[in-house]
Write a structure and sequence with these properties.
The complex is a heterodimer of chains A (318) and B (591). By secondary structure, chain A is an alpha/beta fold. Helices cover 37% and strands 21% of the residues of chain A. Residues 1-20 of chain A have low confidence and may be disordered. Chain B starts with a helix and ends in a 9-residue tail after the last strand. The model of chain B is unreliable at 1-21 (pLDDT under 50). In chain B, the strands form twelve sheets. Chain B has a six-stranded antiparallel beta sheet with strand order 12-13-15-16-17-18. Chain B has a five-stranded mixed beta sheet with strand order 1-38-39-40-41, with no helix packed on it. In chain B, strands 2-44-43-42 form a four-stranded antiparallel beta sheet, with no helix packed on it.
């Protein structure tokens, strides 16, 4: 009987270890091990934090991690000469929460679960040096570095319902789908003095909003450019078009996206910075995006100092 | 002397035998009479109406200072955090829940553990609202409680083994259960907790014996309610009649109004009272309208979930003033006439007295020192009269700057938060655990969410006074007068209990269980339990003696927020214990 219980316990423990990403913490103390650069190299793997169910950046197909950020994570691991391991991130209410839960402290329900590096972290010096009401730096526990892409907003529309879309103003009269609690949601619900508000339809994600457009429930969808491009690539969505609109009134029209590590792991950061810098400058990142049929923009960070031909190479134009 | 001692032993032996053969069933009658029966506590609220009043009077203002601990029990593990539960006691066994959806059965005489149940929580779970649990329900041979992954679990009272487990909502969509369920006429009644967006609150009833769902009632206008018969869902009317009356666009589909604190029941009018949370999204400028039934109290028919009436405390909420706080039925003496009334102390700083038969507003008054967001209440309807400039600004109107900072008092954590107040029919007073704090809110120009630019609000919460935040108040519901107050350095976050011995009990984050004179507010007793007290005390009678129990374990929402308040509470240590007290026999008055 006792042996049976033991076997069962082992089975359960094994099942749990498999379900979680990687159990490399101290089981007795329920703490994450401090995976510094040397520990990562010795362990032979890099845990890369990416958002769960977030196409085209990071998602799962048949149990296998896929997407732009997953492909980039594999290149980062390769650059360090170690194996890639995925660390799925369930998004919390804001970036600060995600950094706390996944990069420096761990979520209180699962303290051992930390990523070595997190991807798709907006690279914004104003954000990085934000102070709280008492003057403390809010993000002092992390280092934000390695910008690798510039992201922006995009609308797609159904030409069967709308002849053309050259201004968001048309959505005063036609329903438009957004992911709930995102900037497109707030922007369209309050824009033009609230005149679009009644036309805004809320969905769990951009994919669900496209499904609604395919059913004829909405005439357009607003999301991040890569999300929109990804949906437009799907054969079932071939008839939908990318609109050529501006977004007057949005303060951050485009922003750079990079990496984050815990502030005590700077040696790892320097190593990853070297890898990602090469990927951007060589045009390898542009090629990754092109392979997925997504438009790519070099981060603003590089635009400030790259010569025109170097910029063109990074942009994948030669 | 000797024979009496022998007699007690025999009695204890017989009882032990009974328990080992299976605990006596908890009946609907036990539950309905809980407020009057002193030998057990079988409901959250010490009675379904939630008055938290005990007719026991062995403990008095004269002898409470001799109260002594008889046992203490540790929940163990590293899973500390906030212990917000209220224990139940039946047949010499205490049933209590702890953080992280754990339940314990403890020998109420010795503090020895009988069994422990740890809900197995799924990986990657992200509960919205900390990992607290506020208590269990008892029915028949079962202990029933809600879990962080939004399930109801029924355990065998003797063994702690699961008898049924039912999913109430999808934890992946952001739902959880932290409140104690309630049993009314054989039905388990529960609400749901939820994150800030994408959810819709609801109240549901399940068969306590089988776990079968009986009815569901969404708390946002436009959603259909159902009753279930023979496995079939039968439509039972749309909440609020139809969609879109008080919400723009399709926002009613994700309107929030989570029922996260559970409810109370009034047998007199056969009505459930449930409060609802704030509306979503948080930016009120996106959703002009009253946004029913957010930040409201709902009167619900326990048989089919129909809404009898509603009272909205904060229409078009823009401050995160949840309307979940308990509505307590009591008989109000109004000019010599007895009125069937009910009272609640809202997050928004106002205390409301309603007619519990129809929801009519009788009176309302502030129970905190300062309210900035409203100038007062309409004397006829109880609707707030908004103060100009008191509403946080629209972030989409900010052109990249921080914008104007709006001061709001009370802060979003409320004049009173989840911690239940108590009503003493002897003194006619409500004992309200409240806090004096304010918040600054501004539009946050630099904000990101899930890899994308976002429009957020920045806020900081700060004490309204230099030397105290918490205030335990005795409020007179007939006049709105504060009869006495006790000021506490740290914010009060624990429930209150009052007794016929003219005592008021509550705990403090500093670790004390305290007792006060119910008439004067004089502090008569304090005992430090080693960690902050944020649970709700109970009292009961066992072997002819009056016992008091309370949980100790600092946590809950307060330490999750930074700012100036954090300075007051950051050195408090976590814990996880049950403390049980009684008077030494020779200290009991011999009258």
């Amino acid at each position: 009987m006792k042996a049976m219980t033991l076997v069962l316990t082992l089975l359960l423990a094994w099942g749990q270890a498999r379900a979680e990403t990687t159990g490399d913490g101290n089981a007795l103390l329920n703490r994450p091990s401090d995976r510094t650069y040397d520990v990562i190299l010795a362990s032979g793997y890099l845990k890369v934090g990416v958002y769960r169910d977030f196409p085209p950046y990071s998602y799962e197909v048949d149990g296998e991690p896929r997407g732009i950020d997953v492909a980039l994570g594999k290149r980062l691991a390769e650059g360090l000469g170690v194996e890639f391991r995925v660390h799925w991130i369930t998004p919390d209410e804001n970036l600060g929460d995600d950094l706390r839960n996944n990069v420096w402290k761990g979520h209180y329900l699962d303290r051992q679960r930390l990523a070595d590096v997190m991807l798709r972290v907006p690279y914004d010096t104003e954000y990085a040096y934000l102070r709280d009401a008492t003057g403390e730096y809010i993000n002092e526990q992390v280092v934000l570095f390695g910008p690798y892409q510039q992201e922006t907003w995009q609308i797609a529309y159904d030409p069967d319902q709308l002849a053309e879309v050259d201004s968001v103003a048309v959505f005063q009269y036609h329903p438009i789908g957004v992911e709930i609690d995102t900037l497109p949601d707030f922007y369209l619900s309050s824009g033009l003095g609230g005149r679009l508000r009644d036309q805004v339809r809320h969905y769990r994600n951009v994919r669900a909003a496209f499904a609604a457009m395919a059913r004829g429930e909405v005439s357009g969808v607003m999301g991040m450019r890569a999300e929109i491009d990804h949906e437009l690539n799907w054969p079932g969505h071939a008839r939908f078009r990318a609109a050529d609109t501006g977004f007057p009134g949005i303060v951050r029209q485009r922003w750079d996206v990079g990496l984050a590590i815990k502030h005590t792991h700077r040696q790892l950061g320097y190593a990853l910075e070297g890898v990602i810098d090469h990927l951007v400058r060589s045009g390898a990142l542009a090629a990754l995006f092109a392979a997925e049929g997504l438009r790519y923009s070099v981060p603003q960070y590089y635009r400030a100092f790259l010569a025109p031909d170097a910029l063109a190479r990074a942009q994948g134009q030669r | 002397m000797r024979s009496s001692k022998f007699g007690i032993r025999v009695a204890a032996g017989t009882l032990a035998l009974t328990v080992s053969c299976g605990a006596l069933a908890v009946t609907d009658e036990d539950i309905l009479n809980d407020a009057r029966t002193t030998e057990d506590v079988v409901t959250y609220g010490m009675g379904l109406s939630g008055q938290r009043f005990s007719p026991l009077d062995h403990l008095t203002t004269d002898n409470v200072r001799y109260l002594q601990p008889v046992w203490a029990f540790s929940f163990g593990n590293e899973k500390m955090r906030g212990q917000e539960a209220q224990p139940l006691v039946k047949d010499g066994v205490m049933y209590v829940s702890a953080s992280y959806s754990r339940v314990y059965a403890i020998d109420a005489r010795t503090g020895e553990e009988r069994w422990q149940y740890d809900a197995r929580l799924p990986d990657g779970i992200m509960p919205c609202c900390d990992v607290v649990n506020r208590g269990v329900a008892l029915y028949g041979d079962k202990v029933i409680f809600g879990t962080l992954d939004a399930k109801l679990v029924a355990l065998n009272r003797d063994t702690g083994k699961p008898m049924w487990i039912k999913k109430v909502a999808d934890y992946q969509a952001g739902y959880a259960i932290t409140a104690a369920p309630m049993i009314v006429k054989g039905k388990v009644i529960t609400g749901v907790s939820g994150g800030e967006f994408g959810i819709v609150g609801k109240v549901e009833a399940y068969d306590a014996n089988t776990g079968e769902k009986l009815w569901t009632r969404p708390t946002v206008e436009g959603h259909m309610g159902y009753v279930y018969r023979d496995g079939k869902a039968i439509e039972n009317g749309i909440s609020g009649g139809q969609a879109g009356r008080t919400w723009p666009g399709d926002m009613w589909k994700n309107g929030g109004a989570a029922t996260w604190l559970g409810g109370t029941y009034d047998a007199d009018t056969d009505t459930l009272f449930f409060g609802t949370g704030n509306p979503a999204p948080w930016n009120s400028h996106l959703r002009p309208g009253d946004n029913l039934f957010s930040s409201s109290r709902l009167a619900i028919d326990p048989d089919d979930g129909s809404i009898k009436w509603h009272f909205q405390t904060t229409p078009h909420d823009g401050w995160d003033y949840d309307g979940v706080n308990e509505l307590i039925a009591f008989d109000l003496n109004e000019n010599g006439r007895t009125v069937k009334a009910a009272a609640t102390a809202d997050r928004n700083g106002f205390f409301y007295v309603l007619n519990r038969e129809n929801g009519a507003f009788i009176r309302g008054f502030p129970f905190v020192d300062t309210i900035t967001w409203a100038k007062g209440l309409d004397p006829d309807t109880g609707r707030p009269i908004y103060a100009e400039g008191g509403r946080p600004g629209d972030p989409s109107k900010s052109s990249g700057g921080k914008g104007e900072t709006v001061l709001a008092q009370p802060a979003f954590l409320g004049g009173k938060n989840w911690m239940p107040m108590a009503y003493n029919p002897g003194t006619g007073l409500f004992y309200v655990p409240s806090n004096e704090w304010a918040m600054d809110i501004w539009n946050e120009p630099v904000s990101y969410k899930k890899g994308a630019a976002f429009l957020g609000a920045g806020f900081t919460i700060r004490p309204a006074n230099d030397d105290y935040i918490g205030v335990l108040r005795a409020m007179d519901p007939t006049t709105g007068r504060e009869v006495w107050r006790y000021e506490n350095t740290a914010p009060l976050w624990g429930g209150v209990m009052t007794t016929a011995g003219n005592l008021v009990f509550t705990g403090t984050p500093e670790g004390y269980l305290k007792a006060f004179d119910a008439r004067t507010g004089k502090e008569l007793y304090r005992f430090n339990t080693g960690s902050g007290v944020v649970g709700s005390p109970i009292t009961w009678e066992m072997d002819g003696e009056q016992y008091v129990s309370v949980l100790s374990g600092w946590g809950g929402a307060v330490p999750l927020w930074g700012g100036e308040v954090a300075k007051v509470v950051k050195h408090f240590n976590q814990g996880g214990m049950v403390w049980t007290f009684k008077l030494p026999r020779d200290r009991i008055a011999s009258n």
